Amino acid sequence: MSTPQRMKQTERIPAQQRGPHSGGMIGQKAGNFRASVRRLIARLRPERMRITVILFAAVASVGLAATGPRVLGWGTDIIFAGAIGKNLPAGITKAEAVEAARAAGDDQIADLLSGIDLIPGQGIDFTALGGVLLLVMGLYAGSALLSYLQGWILNDVVQNTVYRLRSEVEDKINRLPLRYFDHQTR
Prior knowledge:
Blueprint: H1 3-12, H2 33-44, H3 48-87, H4 94-103, H5 107-115, H6 126-175, H7 178-183
């Protein structure tokens, strides 16, 4: 087939239906999606315990990763309270510092001080901050470990399923008579 004939043939197929590299391979969808999903679930049935572990690991990993920023917020609160508390005079209570700010006409500063857990005259509590950072590291390490476990088990499930599929195809081909292959071009 010459190049102009080939171009005319591909022009008849809409561009969105052409396959990779502008070939004539037309993408197909499953005729009955629900039946395909049911067959897939049936194929994965021997692996259902491992799939349950995969789903649990995925949810737990995402949950731990999503909790990390919240806990980091506690560390930010400790740093902020220490930075503000260090600038207040030592020996007074938090309530006295709030009242002094209100008496000076700084209602916004008074509201800020009343919303922070601080001790006037004391700086950043590095012991508490270290505990928060260790907790965050533990959360992220647990998330990474669960994500790795999920991927490892998922890879094993996929490999086992593909192995079973290939074994079934091979068994079927081996059951076919030789004359079947003599009459089939593919």
